[in-house]
Every structure is written in C-alpha cells, then in structure tokens.
Amino acid sequence: MKVRISSGKINLVAELRDTPTTQALEKALPFEASAQTWGDEIYFSTPVSAKLEPDAQQIVEPGTVCFWTEGDALALPFGRTPISTDERPKLASRCNVLGRIDGDPKLLAQVRAGDRVKVEKI
C-alpha cells in the first residue's frame, strides 16, 4: 500500500508492507495529527493501537516508516535520535517496521513540533 505523508509544503510517498499494523492503519486513513520531534525523527499519534510484531526493531535506517506501539504513533526517523550510538536512527523502543519513504527522508527536517501532518492512501 502507498500512502502520502504531508505537512505544509512537504509531500512524501511511502510504500508500506502488508502487516497487521499496516492493515489497521489502512482502515483508519485518512487522518491528521500534530507532529512531535525527537532529534532527527518526527512522530505523531494515530487512531490505531497495535501489538509489537515479531520483526520489530529499535535501530533502523533513515526513511523507515515505524509504528511505536507504546505511543500508538507513527515514527519517521530521518537521522540520529538522542540515543543513537552511530549514524543510524535508534528509536525510543522497539517499533513495528511498516515500510520506507520513497525519496529523500531528510525533507522531514522541515517539519516542526506542532505542525499538522496528514496521512492518506494513494
């Protein structure tokens, strides 16, 4: 499934794998939320709750679309977080890996805390 993630002038497309969390998100689309930031990561609440999946990870590549089960939130890391030990993003805890952002995830650096983020199926 492909989704558009937009905030202000930022429009990114992400390809999501077929997972239980992705299926739950698809049923909730479209939705909007207020962005939060944590180092080089934005995250925002969703109308979905999900359980940790067997392939959940804490260290991911920039541009990975993650679902933070502890916060019912999408996490979009594009660089180092405050707990990173190398150049890769290290999430606050293990998260479900849903897919990847097509294009340059560094565009997410333009999203500020409090900005509205919209997620919709395309």
SSE inventory with pairings:
Layout: E1 2-7, E2 10-16, H1 20-28, E3 31-34, E4 36-37, E5 41-45, E6 57-59, E7 64-68, E8 73-77, E9 90-102, E10 116-121
Antiparallel strand pairs: 1-2, 1-10, 2-9, 3-10, 4-5, 5-8, 6-9, 7-8, 7-9
Protein model, in words:
The protein is mainly β and 122 residues long. The longest helix is centred in the N-terminal third of the chain and has 9 residues, at 20-28. The protein starts with a strand and ends with a strand. The chain is globular, with a radius of gyration of 13 Å. The chain contains one helix and ten strands, in the order ββαββββββββ. Strands 1, 2, 3, 4, 5, 6, 7, 8, 9 and 10 form a ten-stranded antiparallel beta sheet that branches. It is 7% helix and 46% strand.
Structural class: mainly beta
Shape: globular
For the largest beta-sheet, the strand count, sense and barrel status come to: 10 strands, antiparallel
Overall pLDDT confidence: 97
DSSP strand tally: 10
The number of helical elements comes to: 1
How many angstroms does the end-to-end distance come to? 8 Å
What helical percentage do the residues reach? under 10%
Uncertain regions: pLDDT < 50 for 5+ in a row? none
Percent strand equals over 45%
Q: How would you spell out the order of helices and strands?
A: EEHEEEEEEEE
Global Rg: 13 Å
Q: Which labels suit this protein?
A:
mainly beta, 122 residues, 10 strands, single chain, 10-stranded antiparallel sheet
What's the quick description here?
With about 120 residues, this protein is mainly beta. It has one helix and ten strands; from the N terminus they run ββαββββββββ.
